[in-house]
């Protein structure tokens, strides 16, 4: 079973059907377009921290992440120094991974530099594909794409770290650049970016 109908009569994937936190995230946030710099920097950062962990773990820690990383304000995080790294490594509310912490600070600095060349949002959204997947089961959902590979390479060229093709595809799913809601889900086509049939509903 890939979709399950809740007590509200709405069909969701199994992963979003039981945990109230995941259900709310699925119903209100996942796959909806994010086009602002801070929002994209936050989600890029959280996707990097999620690598090797469950998304539920990251979602539960998101308030602590926001507090620890100055609300994911790129200018503030770009100014973090050794004392901030030590503070973050001592913060039990977040994922205390030195490489990921260093990458987040470096990515904030890269985000600030990108403003002279169109900005983070323009760069990420420029990799929106011409069509989106039409998955009927979890097996049909890709874990990367030519666009996520290209986005990964471009971000690395711009000085970003922990932005591999799989992580970037997860980011593209989360912020509406692709729609991988299963066919039959009540959220399919809800972003305003993609029609239910996989065609573009609007220009990026």
TrEMBL record:
MF terms (GO), sorted A to Z: DNA-3-methyladenine glycosylase activity; metal ion binding
Protein name from the UniProt record: 3-methyladenine DNA glycosylase
Keywords from the UniProt entry: Metal-binding, Zinc
InterPro entries, A to Z: Adenine_glyco (IPR005019), DNA-3mA_glycosylase (IPR052891), DNA_glycosylase (IPR011257)
SUPFAM superfamilies: DNA-glycosylase
A Pfam family of this chain: Adenine_glyco
The keyword Zinc-finger is assigned to this record: no
UniProt cross-references to PANTHER family, sorted A to Z: DNA-3-METHYLADENINE GLYCOSYLASE 1, DNA-3-METHYLADENINE GLYCOSYLASE I
An annotated GO BP: base-excision repair
Organism domain of life: Bacteria
Annotated Zn(2+) binding sites: 181
């Amino acid at each position: 079973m890939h979709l399950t109908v809740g007590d509200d009569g709405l069909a969701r994937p199994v992963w979003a059907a039981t945990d109230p936190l995941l259900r709310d995230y699925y119903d209100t946030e996942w796959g909806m377009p994010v086009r602002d710099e801070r929002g994209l920097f936050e989600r890029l950062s959280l996707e990097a921290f999620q690598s090797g962990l469950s998304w539920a773990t990251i979602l539960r820690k998101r308030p602590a992440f926001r507090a620890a990383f100055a609300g994911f304000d790129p200018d503030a995080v770009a100014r973090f120094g050794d004392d901030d790294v030590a503070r973050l490594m001592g913060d039990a509310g977040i994922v205390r991974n030195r490489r990921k912490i260093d990458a987040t600070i470096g990515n904030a600095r890269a985000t600030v530099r990108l403003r002279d060349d169109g900005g983070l949002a323009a760069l990420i959204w420029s990799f929106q594909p011409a069509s989106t997947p039409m998955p009927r089961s979890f097996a049909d959902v890709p874990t990367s794409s030519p666009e996520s590979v290209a986005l990964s390479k471009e971000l690395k060229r711009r000085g970003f770290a922990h932005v591999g093709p799989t992580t970037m595809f997860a980011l593209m799913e989360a912020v509406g650049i692709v729609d991988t809601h299963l066919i039959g889900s009540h959220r399919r086509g809800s972003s305003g970016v993609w029609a239910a049939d996989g065609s573009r509903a609007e220009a990026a």
